[in-house]
Write a structure and sequence with these properties.
The protein is mostly helical. It is 75% helix and 0% strand. It folds into 2 domains: 96 residues, Serine Threonine Protein Phosphatase 5, Tetratricopeptide repeat, CATH 1.25.40; 65 residues, no CATH class. Helix 2 runs antiparallel to helix 3.
């Protein structure tokens, strides 16, 4: 579902699945949170931030209540909300969410997990986007030194992260 057409195709499927899960498992079930998060991501990619935000926030609230504040799924919702805040020009709201997601993932998954590398990458990209290369560079160095660069979501993502930290990549990581 990387291209816009496939995201558009996904929306009715996520809506249908969401209705089914809400009815079968209840509105506060973690599976409902996952579907809310996914539908929010579709809207975010489509540029529909106003539609995405309440879904991602509800996903976060359900996950925190059902799974506890230190669960890796909470980190996923935090990261997605931070990315949305960043996209719509609210860096002050995004900034505390990225480090919280990183801390949760480090504690829950261990520092060598690919999701930790992703969170480090996201935070480094955020800092670079804010022209704070001094904050971004240590995160990139930690990822590379820990050997996690190869296990990030994609090699190009790590390259973009390294490029962002050095000022070579102006777009950051999506």
């Amino acid at each position: 579902m990387k291209d816009m057409g496939r995201h558009t195709d996904a929306e009715p499927l996520f809506r249908r699945a969401l209705a089914i899960y809400q009815k079968a498992a209840g509105p506060d079930h973690p599976a409902v949170a996952t579907l809310l998060n996914n539908l929010g991501q579709v809207y975010k990619v489509e540029g529909r931030a106003a539609d995405a935000e309440p879904l991602i926030k509800r996903s976060l609230a359900i996950r925190e209540k059902a799974l506890g504040p230190d669960h890796p799924d909470v980190a996923r919702s935090l990261n997605n909300l931070a990315e949305l805040d960043e996209r719509v020009g609210r860096p002050a709201e995004a900034e505390p969410l990225y480090p919280r997601a990183l801390t949760i993932r480090q504690r829950a998954l261990g520092s060598d997990h690919p999701d930790v590398a992703t969170s480090q990458n996201n935070l480094a990209s955020f800092f670079q986007g804010q022209k704070r290369t001094g904050n971004a560079l240590p995160l990139v160095q930690q990822t590379i030194a820990g050997g996690r660069a190869a296990v990030a979501h994609s090699t190009s993502g790590v390259v973009r992260c390294a490029g962002a930290a050095t000022g070579l990549d102006r777009e950051g990581v999506g």
